[in-house]
Amino acid sequence: MVPILEVQDLHVSYRSSGEASYAALAGVNFHLMPNEILGVLGESGSGKSTLATSLLKLLPSNGNISRGSILFEGKDLLCAPAGELEQIRGKRISLVYQEPSVALHPALRASEQVFQVLAAHESAGKSALRQKTRQVLASLFPKEADRISNSYPHQLSGGQRQRVLIAQAIACGPSLLIADEPTASLDSTTQKEILGVMRTLRDELGLAMIFITHNPALLAGFADRVLVLYGGRVAELGLARTVLSSPKHPYTRALFQSMPQILENTRDTRKTKLPVIAGDSSAAQLPLEGCVFEPRCPDRMEDCREREPAVVNLGESHTVSCFKYGG
Amino acid sequence: MRFFFRRLRHACFLLFGVSILAFLFTTLAPGNYFDEMRLNPQIAPETMAALRAQYQLDRPLPVRYVSWMNSVLHGQMGFSFAYNSPVAPILFVRARNTLLLTITATLIAWGIALPLGVWSAERFGRLPDRLLSWATAALLVIPDLALALGLLVLTVRTGWFPTGSMTSLDFGSLSLGGKFRDLALHMTLPVAALVLSGLPLLIRHVRAAVAEVLDAPFMLAARGHGIPRRTLLYRYALRVAANPLISLFGFSIGALLSGSLLVEVVMSWPGLGPLLLESILSRDLYVVIDGVLFSTMFLVSGNLIADILLYWADPRIRTESAAR
Amino acid sequence: MQPLLRVEKLVKCYERQNVFGSREKLLALDGVSFAVAQETTLAVVGESGSGKSTLGFCISCLEIPTSGSIWFEGRDIVVLAESERRKLRPQIQLIFQDPSNSLNPRWSVEEILLEPLNLKGKLKREETKQRAVALMTQVGLSSDMFQRSPAQLSGGQRQRLAIARALALEPRVLILDEALSALDCSVQAQIANLLIELQRTLGMTYLFITHDLAMAAHLADEIAVMNRGRVVEQGPAQNILRHPKEEITRHLLAAIPSLDNAERPPLES
Predict the structure, then answer these.
(1) Which one, A229, B13, B251, C228, has least CB within 10 Å?
(2) Over pLDDT 70: what percentage of chain C?
(3) In terms of residue numbers, what domain contains A213?
(4) Domain end point (choices A158, A173, A188)
């Protein structure tokens, strides 16, 4: 099978007034197969949102893709003219935004917002589009499609808003869905529900999906493969069950250990301190030379300060960028 | 509807308050219409007293207010000493002329400001936007009076448009189309002055409001859905930027009105402006009060229209007012 | 032991008029009772809309409950005179989910910290400054951040600052309203450790309001599960987790995302 998306050596940097430009992404490589869910795991400063926006060339005006290529269905998006991109966005590749509360237009009804996406990409008549709008909304709200359609965003709950966003994203039948922290602001039961919706969509519509999150636990039982992003670089990439159950990169390991675990421990570890990764992952703290994780790394070695580690293949398409494994 | 009635009630209270204040201040101001006659030795003091009695100028204030109010409610709005007729018919013609001027100017000003502001906001901070900012800033610092006089001088020199008055002398003999053309030509100059004085502020507000919305996450999300640029700007952005702009619209009606009084005087347009000036100078009491009242009414209706538009444009206000 | 904070039959009713003008009642809190002992943590968990945030607002005197009582240090703060309440108020501090909304973006870190210290008064300039430095150290911030603005801090640092500002008033109870939910996982762990540390050193009492049952389980001595304005289940954390009685508790437990699912094959077939 041919990958639907291939990202090669992607470099993105931001200019900020007064300061030197900084690299949000530095050499990101990955591919995505049709019908596959790739979970991108990253914390603030990892460049995960930059990844989402640069895949659609929607970077803010001070952002710049300085190197690399993004091959979508064999075509390099970075070379595509603006008009063509506008047709790809929303039709072939859709974006589901992180904050459902702010990603919807506040003064348009839910149905209108879905309708506009359809109208932007399809030439069918108005009534046909209205009909299709109803269908799309009905597929996400089997019980109360009519009420939701006529509601404004402020009349909907967080989970409902997120469903409307998903309706917008799938309206034109895209082949790739990029979801940037779609559940971050929802409570855990709604989170689970939205994950279920996305999972079903993938199975029914045959979507490929890039699911970006800071919470590794969400990816368990959801993603097929996991890409761990740290400081704009791919720290680790592999099958979800391998990466999540036996992580290799020191960052991934430390991150998983810092999460509170309940129940399975026979020993009561409550109210004991969690093992944390010291320091901060914000861009200001990243070293300019060597491995980006080196200052916070529990396993740092001599080499780590000198140069960046290369990608090491651990087998079963599990790769790690760390000197511990050869680098 | 509840919302509308509540606003209407507020407006009525406001008008009532203004009517009292306007009445009080104009009547308490020293002098009256007949003071100049008093200096004339040929008019007997008895005649003076009779005149004063006839126009109730010797009665106590509350009585005069009530009788004026009564006349307002009967559609006469008091009596003009100078025109020797009820105020209403004189005022209505003048108000109509003023409204013709201000409404045209408002529509044209917004018609220009909206696309230009959006255009500028889209290029926020880049060269075309900066040039436009400079232009509006320059226009903003020119006083209205200088602007009006400048236009007047220009027109008199070039003779492109007729100056002064509302129609040509032979207006009555023109065909309907001719009448329209004649009126439009006469309006050009005062309308241009009004538009030029109001425009820079409007452009700046539209630009700021739209530029702020363009950065909103839902705009980025909409771009991510491939919504075309035009829909994005005019349907999505303007819709949200509308709230402050609608309030500004209500305000701009009022502002244009006060600007219009000046322009009318300078360009001798037979509107409320010259009438008000005349009547103030000659202390034609009721005309002044009614003029003030009319201006207030314009302002209040402007805001009322803005409120209704706001209610229509923003679903959040609708639910909020329903929740109260 | 006498509980530090006790809530009895707390009711908060919001009234709103619907489109037809008839009044609708919304019971955000419907007879909530519980007690928190000094130096312990009570986690209040529930889905959004279960009334848990309203509870926090009522206890921190930001909302006036419709009925019921809130006993703090042996006094009912609901019926207390405003002047008396104002004295008690600093002792119960509220920390929000997103500190960037509650920190004035135009102030520097120093100004943000000095404000509550000056409010307390009676301190000399030098002492105030020293106290601010001490607070910064206490929450794990370095005092060379004094001149930065909140926007220049990371999410975790902002939450630390919010905690420092609350501590400036020397409170006895901290109400943490989803205080960790917006943070990255590794930062959540850092702040959770800070909370544990502060409880040990300062004897702080926490009301930990959250939808994250995993973190609640880690931090709390007791858990109260809320649903539709009522506390449906309450007890020692371990009991609730191991032997949930109510449907909603099981529902919440099932929704905890957990890495342990990783062992399951990704396609549930």
Answers:
(1) B13
(2) 93
(3) 5-92+174-325
(4) A173
Check: CB of residue B226 under 8 Å from CB of residue A84. no
Q: Which residue of B has its CA nearest to A166?
A: B225
A72 and A101 share one domain: no
Same domain? For A196 and A301 the reply is yes
Q: Which domain holds residue B142?
A: 88-323
Measured between beta carbons, which residues in chain A are less than 8 angstroms from residue C16?
none
Is residue B193 included in any domain, yes or no?
Answer: yes
**Residues A158 and A184 occupy one common structural domain:** no
- Contacts A94 to B, Cβ<8 Å: 224-225
Residue of B nearest to C19 (CA): B322
Across B91-95, average pLDDT: 84
pLDDT digits (tens, 9 = 90+) for B312-323: 777 777 665 554
Residues A106 and A88 grouped into a single domain: no
Taking residue B192's Cβ as centre, other Cβ atoms within 10 Å add up to 20
Contact residues, B window 205-264, toward A, CB-based 8 Å cutoff: 216-218, 220-229, 231, 235-236, 239-240, 242
Q: Is residue B103 part of a domain?
A: yes
pTM of the model: 0.80
B218 vs A56: CB contact, 8 Å cut-off? no
Out of A94, A108, A152, closest to residue B225 by CB: A94
Residue B249 to chain C, least CA–CA distance (Å): 28
Contact check, Cβ <8 Å, A264/C260: yes
Q: Do residues A257 and A319 both lie within one domain? A: yes
Considering only CB atoms, which chain C residues are within 8 Å of B323?
Answer: 16-18
Q: Over chain A, what HEC string results?
A: CCCCEEEEEEEEEEEECCEEEEEEEEEEEEEECCCCEEEEECCCCCCHHHHHHHHCCCCCCCEEEEEEEEEECCEEHHHCCHHHHHHHECCCEEEECCCCCCCCCCCCCHHHHHHHHHHHHCCCCHHHHHHHHHHHHHHHCCCCHHHHHCCCHHHCCHHHHHHHHHHHHHCCCCCEEEEECCCCCCCHHHHHHHHHHHHHHHHHHCCEEEEEECCHHHHCCCCCEEEEEECCEEEEEEEHHHHHHCCCCHHHHHHHHCCCCCCCCCCCCCCCCCCCCCCCCCHHHCCCCCCCCHHHCCCCCCHHHHCCCCEEECCCCCEEECHHHCC
We report the CATH number of the domain holding residue A35 as: 3.40.50.300
Residue B305 in any domain: the answer is yes
Residue C41: closest C-alpha in chain A: A271
Q: How many structural domains does chain B have?
A: 1
CATH code at position B153: 1.10.3720.10
Within this chain, do residues A180 and A60 fall inside the same structural domain, yes or no? Answer: yes
Q: Do A192 and C257 touch (CB under 8 A)?
A: yes
Asked if the structure places residue B195 within a domain, the reply is yes
Across the A/C interface, how many CB contacts are shorter than 8 Å? Answer: 146
C25 chain-B contacts, CB cut-off 8 A = none
In chain C the domains, ranked by start, together with CATH numbers, are 5-106+171-256 (3.40.50.300)
Is A240 in Cβ contact with C219 (below 8 Å)? no
* Domain end point (choices A173, A191, A217): A173
For every one of its 327 residues, what pLDDT tens digit does chain A have, with 9 covering 90 and above?
789 999 999 999 988 766 667 888 988 999 999 999 999 999 888 888 899 989 988 888 788 898 899 999 888 999 888 888 888 888 899 988 877 778 888 888 899 999 999 998 888 888 989 989 998 898 888 888 888 888 888 888 888 898 899 999 988 889 999 998 888 778 888 888 889 889 888 888 889 999 999 999 889 889 999 999 998 999 999 999 899 988 999 999 999 888 887 655 555 666 788 888 887 777 667 787 888 888 888 888 888 888 888 888 888 789 999 988 876
260-319 of B, contacting A, C-beta below 8 A: 313-316, 319
Residues A82 and A226 grouped into a single domain: yes
Residues of chain B with C-beta less than 8 angstroms from the C-beta of A109: 315
> How many domains does one find in chain A?
2
